[in-house]
Amino acid sequence: MAIHPLAAALFLTVLSGSVLAEAPNQQFATPKTRAEVVAELIQARANGELNISDADYPSTPKFVSTKTRAQVVAELEQARARGELNVNDADYPYAPPFVSTKTRAQVLAELVEYNKHPDPQGLYHGY
Fold first, then answer.
1. For residue range 20-30, what is the model confidence (pLDDT) as tens digits?
2. Which of 6, 21, 75, 117 is the most buried (most CB within 10 A)?
3. Are residues 94 and 86 in contact, defined by beta-carbon separation less than 8 angstroms?
4. What confidence score (pLDDT) does residue 39 get?
5. C-alpha dihedral sign at 92, 95, 96, 97
6. Distant-in-sequence, close-in-space partners of 65: CB < 8 Å, separation ≥ 6
7. Percent of the chain surpassing pLDDT 70
8. Cα–Cα–Cα angle for 92, 93, 99, nearest 5°?
9. Cβ neighbours of residue 94 under 8 Å, at least 6 residues apart?
10. pLDDT tens-digit profile of 95-124?
11. Distance separating alpha carbons of residues 56 and 62, to the nearest angstrom
């Protein structure tokens, strides 16, 4: 009687799976009690070693400040006084306020001269 190759392969797969299922796992040879596992969990939480969610991965050490509150407040006031404190995304990157080097009379004279000889390409060079 000839055994179909597919049936033989299925039989060997089932047989090998059952053999492997019975093999003892050396890693878990001495099982822990529920109390021991709970104690380890509590200890891991206390040490900060337990990740709570994906946002905690990878775990980072807790921040420890090297400055006093007064130093940080002083730095904030200095940045605010210099105008370096960003308020929102529209202020990024920081650019100091524009200070004109021309007087109002000089700007008006340039405008009068431009109106005499308008040159649209002279204002904007395409960049």
1. 555 555 665 67
2. 75
3. yes
4. 93
5. negative
6. 72
7. 68
8. 110
9. 84, 86
10. 777 888 999 999 999 889 888 887 766 665
11. 12
Place of tokens 């040879």: 29
Token couple for 37? 């596992």
One-letter amino acid at 72 equals V
- Cα-based distances in Å from 51 to 44, 45, 74, 77, 95: 9, 9, 36, 37, 41
Residue labelled with tokens 């524009």 = 98
Length of the chain: 127
Strand segments (E) across 1-127: none
Judge contact between 96 and 83, C-beta under 8 A: yes
Confidence of residue 67 (pLDDT cuts 50, 70, 90): very high
Question: Which region, left, alpha or beta, applies to residue 59 given φ > 0 means left and ψ of -120 to 50 means alpha?
Answer: beta
